[in-house]
Amino acid sequence: MSGNLVSATLRGGLFTRIVGKRLLFFQEIVSTMNEATQQAKSGADEGTVVIAEVQTAGRGRQGRSWISREGNLYLSILFRPTLDALPMIGILAGVATVRAIRTTTGSDPRIKWPNDVMLGGKKICGILVESVVQGDTVAFAVLGIGININLDTESLEDIGDFAGSLNAAVGHPVSREDLLRQLLHNLDGLYLQAMQGQSPLPKWRTMLETLGQRVRARGSSESYIGLAEDVDELGNLQLRLDSGQMITLTAGDISLSHDKQ
Ligand code: BTN
Predict the structure, then answer these.
(1) For the whole model, what pTM was predicted?
(2) Top-level CATH class of 5-207?
(3) Does any ligand 1 atom lie closer than 6 A to the CB of residue 94?
């Protein structure tokens, strides 16, 4: 059944120029990030997509693990962007994912800065970008996307409070093939635009649920509380502290939560 995820996606018609020109499917793999990185180092073309049914060591941001069981969507895409387009990869991935979920389900997910896709108050999708830059040149970037579609998050003690699943949020089973096809299609269009200098940032900004909220941002050593006022042209969060001072937070090592007070 699982091998069909890719073949069914292709059967449904995948008309892209870069993303998905080559699709690799694995029933079980350590992490699609590792395989896509290996592909990149072996000279694979950009647009190569690695999809797995199960990951034995899926990873998330900040060294966290990503629970990866059968029935969900786990993929990594190899890009070779310009240095200017590199910061846009995660941003365009957020836009592509929100739009794919909207088109496939009719629901309206939002993005929690920097790039958690939220539906019904829970995180249903995570986005990870890993890149190798040599001087002024991006050797490659690997974009990883994990979407919980049919994951019983409530039975998972560690993540049950904040993680959700698409089927549960929309109340019916969602076609993985349709969602994957739509996602690859959206990524292709937005990536081509970004490489031509058209930023996905204004679209992403309208999808951010974080703006206008009071949040607590935890870094590796410090913690800040303030009003999430805006994002800058690179997608960094501009946080207005209670003192009136504005600080800029980069996504790298920050985790964000609502300030309950
Ligand atoms: C996050 O922490 O929110 C990012 C999660 C990214 C998970 C995806 S699943 C496909 C790809 N392979 C991985 O090991 N991680 C990413």
Answers:
(1) 0.94
(2) alpha beta
(3) no
